[in-house]
Amino acid sequence: MDTRENKTACIFPGQGSQHVGMGKALYEAFPESREIFDRADEALGEKLSALCWNGPEEELKRTANQQPAILTTSIAAWAAFVKRSTLKPVFFAGHSLGEYSALVACGALAFEDAVRAVRARGQLMQEAVPEGTGAMAVVLGVEVATVQRICSEAAQGQILSPANYNEPNQTVIAGDTAAVERAGELLKAAGARRVLRLPVSAPFHCPLMLPVKARFAAVLENIPFAEPSAPIVSNVEAAPNAHPSRMRALLLEQVAAPVRWTESMEFLSREGISRVIEFGPGKVLCGLAKRICPQMNCANVEDDKSLHALLGET
Asked: Which of 30, 129, 286, 292 falls 20 to 30 Å from 170 in CA-CA distance?
């Protein structure tokens, strides 16, 4: 793979990209990937690997399991790639949970610390809001300004706000269930192509998650952060950070702040990034990248076949 003419950023997916069987092909094909899954099992004191490969799906979808499972699969893909490529990414970025994967990949965060931290993050997020009282919905076909205005109108004293700015015509909203339902009707009337409730157990990246911050701060307090090999474009600022002293605060802020993914990809484009490589299960971020920056080349690594294809092997 000739990388001399490409300025590349490496990106990592978040919740919702999981599927039963993810990472198994990596484990069987690459010693580096096998080591990552083994280290995750040891760090958590349980067979996370077996849950990734065999399910059951309902258990894998639980936030406290889904987060370490996706992180582990993403880093297993990254480890196999690094062993076989001399590529030096210019930037790293990750969508929500994926920001932790990005921090591991760039050397700023130890893998074991990350997998334990996101297990705690998932548990705390799940506990923050009683099940059923909060909701999320993806809004398709409406510009951001309209979504923001309707969130303000529909709140009616409750919590409701954009949670993920995924691409110009796809925004996720989160908040109290009744407010999300009111917004859905108003958005459809405003011309939304679709408003779809997401099958999540908590309303992430909105003010209902504020109680998580203090408890999660205790988890991150004693975790060290190191100098990254390249800057990480943070979800909170949609801007690069290479200072270990700021990483903990950005991760804490991220819990209740919206994911500014559209702006993050636009920043990469302005910086001359011509290609992004997504590491982890699925191709969700590749799809978003193509809609935000159509000129950008995209590739993903989630198993042995996709890695060999990227490397130009047979």
From this structure: 129
Whole-angstrom Cα distance, residue 254 to residue 96? 7
Identical fold, 8-128+208-311 and 141-200: no
pLDDT digits (tens, 9 = 90+) for 204-227: 999 999 999 999 999 999 999 999
Catalytic residue among 33, 49, 161, 205: 205
Helix axis angle, 304-311 to 63-84, nearest 10°: 40
Name the CATH superfamily, with its identifier, for domain 8-128+208-311. Answer: Malonyl-Coenzyme A Acyl Carrier Protein, domain 2 (3.40.366.10)
Let me know the angle formed at the C-alpha of 124 by 121 and 130, rounded to the nearest 5 degrees: 140
Parallel/antiparallel/unpaired status of strands 170-176 and 297-301: unpaired
Q: How far apart are CA 9 and CA 251, in angstroms?
A: 20
Annotated catalytic residue 161: no
From 17, 49, 74, 96, active-site residue: 96
255-309: pLDDT as tens digits:
999 999 999 999 999 999 999 999 999 999 999 999 999 999 999 999 999 999 9
Residue 1 confidence (pLDDT) above 70: no
Q: At residue 4, does pLDDT exceed 50?
A: no
